[in-house]
């Protein structure tokens, strides 16, 4: 039952409404508690807050009006506000593939590491014992107590004869996960663990916790937890991964603007992103408007056929067109280079030359975007009064002058908000870059993955997900910068729409 059904229940049956509100609240609370138990406290807190708001709004007549907007607000909080805030928060942390864990989990991982003492290795076999198993060590003639191999356990070894129910090696291998949880204790007090598919041996821990923020390595080196960097460090400043997540303030932003290996490619990509978005909008608008003007020519025959053919790129899914163009621009086997080589004897390096790669990206984006602009232009051109154009023609104005002095000024105001929106879309056009070039060719001399055709969106994606280091914090900082730019563009779009509306109302 939806929230709308609950709020529309008759007033004569309040107990039914309260019962449904209570059931939904209990389900939400149980879900929040489950998230907390699996370590997702933040998500649990958000769900707990939504549950409290749900009970207050739907359980009281005082907030009756809020029931209609609560589902929308909840969706905005969960799917828009929270991801934005969380991403921004990541930008102020050291979150990366080396700093994925919490402090407690990092200590647990380090102290669980061990080195096998090869001098103690000995083969083993597994024997059935009712519903459990026993581990048989033939070299020392020791047999373990019955174990289930379903959870971590310690079993004592005692001298015994070889059991009659030994499993085949392939059947024992199937139990390797449970064997890894088992610790065997020899009669002299030594502990041995599973050291492979065929042996048990003593495992010497690599790190031992010797203090609240201190680990001692097997070679005697003392490591101290540095909560400013999120790593255990030695006296020589050696950092031992894995680390843990910590807040580092504006360090990621400082790296963006001060590190030459980051600042150089970031500024280059930032400038190219603006150029890419601007050129795409300019050429899409120009080509679309030109084709719309041609299709408006009254003497043109077969207009419906031309319209259908010119709109086809808009009807085909963009990812299919991108992949087709990727094959057409192939440097060795593509049809474009085949034609250019036959006619002019040249075969451009579309994917390895930085300038040509950027030209190719713009060409493909114009092909994908011009039909939308053409459709808009065809509608706006029909709104231009014919009387104005006829009067200018009677005064001796050429068709080109009529277009630039009468037609274009009248269609630009309604076009402007759409052009700004198209600029914002192309500013984050990750799909095109990812499918066509993946940002390549790479920019030389960088300390982060950065390509000549990368825009900020693809650059951030590669930092976060397509890189051995996976620098989520740095990607989050760049995402915040992108958010600010797109917010400014959106505000400019709002202002342009408001001014256009005011201008139209003033004219009317």
UniProtKB/TrEMBL annotation:
GO biological process assignments: maltodextrin transmembrane transport
Record's bilayer topology term: Multi-pass membrane protein
SUPFAM superfamilies from the UniProt entry: MalF N-terminal region-like (SSF160964), MetI-like (SSF161098)
Annotated Gene Ontology cellular component terms: maltose transport complex
Localization of this protein: Cell inner membrane; Cell membrane
Domain of life where this protein originates: Bacteria
GO MF term list: ABC-type maltose transporter activity
Protein function: Part of the ABC transporter complex MalEFGK involved in maltose/maltodextrin import. Probably responsible for the translocation of the substrate across the membrane.
Annotated family: Belongs to the binding-protein-dependent transport system permease family. MalFG subfamily.
Quaternary structure and partners: The complex is composed of two ATP-binding proteins (MalK), two transmembrane proteins (MalG and MalF) and a solute-binding protein (MalE).
Alphabetical list of PANTHER family matching this protein: MALTOSE/MALTODEXTRIN TRANSPORT SYSTEM PERMEASE PROTEIN MALF, MALTOSE_MALTODEXTRIN TRANSPORT SYSTEM PERMEASE PROTEIN MALF
NCBIfam families with a match to the protein in the record: PRK10999.1
Name the UniProt record assigns to this protein: Maltose/maltodextrin transport system permease protein
Source lineage: Bacteria, Pseudomonadati, Pseudomonadota, Alphaproteobacteria, Rhodobacterales
Gene: malF
């Amino acid at each position: 039952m939806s929230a709308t059904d609950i709020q529309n229940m008759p007033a004569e049956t309040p107990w039914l409404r309260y019962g449904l509100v209570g059931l939904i609240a209990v389900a939400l609370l149980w879900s929040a508690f489950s998230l907390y138990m699996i370590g997702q406290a933040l998500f649990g807190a958000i769900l707990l807050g939504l549950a409290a708001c749900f009970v207050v709004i739907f359980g009281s007549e005082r907030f009756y009006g809020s029931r209609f907007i609560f589902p929308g607000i909840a969706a905005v909080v969960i799917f828009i506000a929270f991801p934005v805030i969380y991403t921004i928060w990541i930008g102020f942390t050291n979150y990366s593939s080396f700093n994925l864990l919490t402090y407690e989990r990092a200590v647990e991982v380090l102290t669980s590491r061990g080195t096998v003492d090869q001098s103690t290795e000995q083969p083993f076999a597994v024997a059935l014992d009712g519903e459990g198993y026993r581990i048989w060590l033939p070299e020392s003639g020791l047999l373990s107590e019955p174990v289930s191999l379903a959870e971590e356990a310690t079993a004592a070894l005692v001298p015994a004869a070889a059991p009659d129910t030994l499993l085949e090696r392939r059947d024992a291998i199937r139990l390797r996960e449970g064997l890894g949880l088992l610790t065997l204790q020899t009669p002299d007090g030594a502990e041995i663990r599973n050291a492979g598919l065929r042996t048990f041996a003593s495992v010497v821990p690599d790190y031992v916790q010797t203090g609240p923020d201190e680990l001692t390595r097997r070679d005697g080196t003392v490591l101290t937890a540095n909560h400013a960097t999120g790593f255990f460090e030695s006296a020589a400043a050696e950092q031992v991964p894995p680390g843990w997540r910590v807040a580092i303030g504006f360090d990621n932003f400082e790296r963006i603007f001060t590190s030459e290996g980051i600042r150089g490619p970031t500024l280059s990509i930032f400038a190219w992103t603006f150029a890419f978005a601007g050129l795409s909008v300019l050429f899409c608008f120009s080509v679309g408007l030109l084709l719309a003007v041609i299709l408006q020519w009254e003497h043109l025959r077969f207009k419906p056929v031309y319209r259908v053919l010119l709109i086809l790129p808009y009807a085909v899914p963009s990812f299919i067109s991108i992949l087709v163009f990727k094959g057409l621009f192939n440097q060795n086997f593509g049809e474009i280079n085949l034609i250019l080589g036959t006619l002019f004897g040249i075969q451009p390096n579309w994917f390895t030359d930085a300038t040509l790669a950027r030209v190719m990206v713009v060409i493909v984006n114009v092909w994908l975007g011009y039909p939308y602009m053409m459709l808009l232009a065809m509608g706006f051109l029909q709104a231009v009064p014919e009387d104005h154009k006829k009067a200018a023609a009677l005064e001796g104005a050429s068709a080109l002058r009529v277009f630039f002095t009468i037609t274009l000024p009248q269609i630009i105001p309604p076009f402007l908000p759409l052009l700004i929106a198209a600029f914002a879309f192309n500013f984050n056009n990750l799909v095109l870059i990812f499918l066509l070039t993946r940002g390549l060719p790479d920019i030389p001399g960088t300390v982060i993955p950065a390509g000549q055709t990368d825009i900020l969106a693809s650059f951030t994606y590669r930092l976060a997900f397509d890189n051995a280091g996976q620098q989520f914090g740095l990607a989050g900082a760049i995402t915040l910068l992108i958010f600010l730019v797109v917010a400014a563009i959106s505000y400019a779009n709002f202002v342009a729409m408001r001014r256009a509306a005011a201008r139209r109302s003033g004219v009317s």
